[in-house]
Amino acid sequence: MRPYLLTFLLAVLFVSACSSGKRGSPPTTTTTNAGQQQVSRESTRIELITGAEQTAVYVPMLKGKRVGIVANPTSIIGPKHLVDTLRSLGVNIIKAFGPEHGFRGQASDGAKVQNDVDTRTGIPIISLYGSHTKPTPADLKGVDIMIFDIQDVGARFYTYISTLHLIMEACAENNVELMILDRPNPNAYIDGPIREEKYKSFIGMHPIPITHGMTIGEYARMINGEGWLNNKIQCKLNIIKLQNYTHTKPYTLPVKPSPNLNTQQSILLYPSLCLFEGTVISVGRGTQMPFQILGNPKLEDKYKFSFTPVAIPGMSETPLHQNEKCYGLDLRNYDTSNFIKTGRLNLQWLIEMYKAYPEKDKFFDHTLNKRMNNFDRLAGTENLKKQIISGKSEDEIRRSWEPGLSQFKLMRKKYLLYQ
């Protein structure tokens, strides 16, 4: 081979290797003498940077303060938990608060987080699930500032936004500032019926549609701005904004946000499939494919695809239709980009499976299994169930969501931090 040709081929290979880096990798960082993380110019141009990653911005604000932190396994900077990083930078964290699914642990292993002390750091952990969902004055005693850093998935019934509300309320009532380290919304579109006041609950605390199209920081601004806290009290917020983010920019989560949202596909299907948790249809809990498959034992004559839910410790202890063969839909290869492209949930699966189920009077019967939620609470209205039973088309159902949906979109604009 001629020398100049060999040189040309090597150059091509070098350029190809340099351009094949993964877009989702953590940004390149350097550490200053003060131990503060800084993002390189190159990564700033091309990579989305979370609030948590911007330690050079917010760590100085924490110096000399006693810090409380609301976090879970999604609260990370690169491979490290946020708490470990902040402690290494000299931040005085005196209390940690763990929401549903706990503060720290490997969800895939079903690890249980201790409810009293973090074994790695010795920091007291206060549980915020079960009967104790809101910090008490005693919980916040000695705390100068709270940090909230939890990955949300953008759906009304995903309870971390309810935890956010209660944290804001407790901070406001006890004169504690709340710092929010913002993270992207993987389901950044707006769709679904507005939750009616009658169906207010922990899985539907605010009058919003099923998908709200906001980051956790923007959502906190809306909670304050709309006067949703008790007695319209205001929480003092300090939001560390995302860099290089827009609502239309796709985002793949680096860590699963909860045990049964274990893939990006399940996260993107979740807003459409969670409604099935108020029906007799399994969403795949008790398999390694939760929120990617749908089925019921009574649908054998309608569908060929099948699966059998079993108990999975730390993931699904008592799944619906445990040890029964279910027949239905396999959505693992469904093109989830359709949700962002159209800005719409998928209602056809719900309509289709209701029509296919032989005992229609039992389809929405949430008393058949203790794991099942009330469909009307999930939907935020009783109208959706009535419309499906009466045979309304998807277009007819969607028209009934107006003018509420358009009014929400207009209200939402006041609180946006990103385009």
TrEMBL record:
Domain (Peptidoglycan beta-N-acetylmuramidase NamZ N-terminal) ranges: 67-264
InterPro entries (alphabetical): NamZ, NamZ_C, NamZ_N
Pfam families attached to this UniProt entry: NamZ_C, NamZ_N
Domain of life: Bacteria
Keywords: Signal
PROSITE patterns, per the entry: PROKAR_LIPOPROTEIN
Signal peptide: 1-24
Protein name (record): Exo-beta-N-acetylmuramidase NamZ domain-containing protein
UniProt source species: Paradesertivirga mongoliensis
Classification of source organism: Bacteria, Pseudomonadati, Bacteroidota, Sphingobacteriia, Sphingobacteriales
